[in-house]
Amino acid sequence: MELGLKDKVAVVMAASKGLGRASAEALAAEGCKVGLCARGEEALQETARAIIKTHGVEVHFEPVDVLDDAARQRFLQNVEDTLGPIDILVVNGGGPPHGTASAVSDEEIESAVASTLIPKIKWTRAVVQGMRERKWGRILLIESTSVKQPIDGLALSNTMRAGVAGFAKTLATEVASDGVLVNLVLPGSTDTDRLKALFEHRAKEAGVSIEAAKSAYGKRTPLGRIARPEEFGAVIAFLASEKASYVTGAVIPVDGGICSGLL
Question: What pTM does this model have?
Fold first, then answer.
């Protein structure tokens, strides 16, 4: 299927590993020029080289702390100077640590707002006006299935991600008439480095192989397995494309059916 993404300029945050890298690779496979940022320079360089070698597209990459306003402004300007105006933004990043709703401290609350909610709003605001002026844009926010179904023990993550969803849904309505589409994508269990560490821990505790621990974890889903990163990336590429031109303000799980709610 031709997605109409050739030579579009896509920025992907936290792009060196995991879901960010899968998103960047899927967009590059469709012919997008990609601007990549992450904190770890070595992994970011490896990702950029792999994308250039495999897909032959233009890539601009910089190590960036997404909480740093000056670094964000510099990176986005460098992307535009190097690749052109930004058409697609994939907002990605980590979340707050574990904690129950009754036990979180003032400091943890403030840190969660500063690290998980505010930067996503700022990165989105930094590109959306240019998209509106050009009458085309895609903003995709990678969140969590907790937007639909809160996860026990992740009180602050549940709260911050719901806040991001509220912002995104509001923005989607405001910018729809300008051809800018805003959607949330909710990954479930995906075979990334973060989950590999969990499998290793569970395998050691249970005295089983890592593959056995991985299989048991995947059986929690109706599909009976965890996702491959490229399966998540494919959804990102589709939502960024011309083929998804009537999808905005949506909250889309890519979770193997594990969310049981109707809405």
Answer: 0.94
